[in-house]
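Example 3.2
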Amino acid sequence: QSTYSPTVVALQKQLQQAQIEFDAQAQTLMEAQQALRKQKAESTARMAHLAEEHQLQIERLQIQSIKEKHQLEQAWIDKSAKQAKAQLARQTDALDAEGRTNFVQATLDRLASLEHRISVKENEFEYRLKQTKEVADWELNLERGKMELRIQEQGQEP
């Protein structure tokens, strides 16, 4: 049996104790490194997930913006169409009114023309009637004159 001096034995025990502590600290360090790697992986996964969610949120906002823009454009189109329809209605009413006015004026013009033609025909009729009456009076006077001449001629004869 070899015998070592108590100092060597004490140093060997300290060395063994130091080795146990070193191994324990190395194990703790490896576990801490593993925990850090795991945290880093989880953090990276979370960051990727957050980035994905952030991108989705941006896309949702873009879609919402497009929808709102479309709604504004549709509202503008509807307003413009309503204004155009109202203007067309006003123009149609104006044309209808103008058309009615033109129709009424044309009717009045035709009536005036008919009145004039009737007046001319009445004047012609009155003139012819007057001429006919004058001719009739003249013929009547002629016949009277002829009768008076016959009566005179008969009266002179025995």
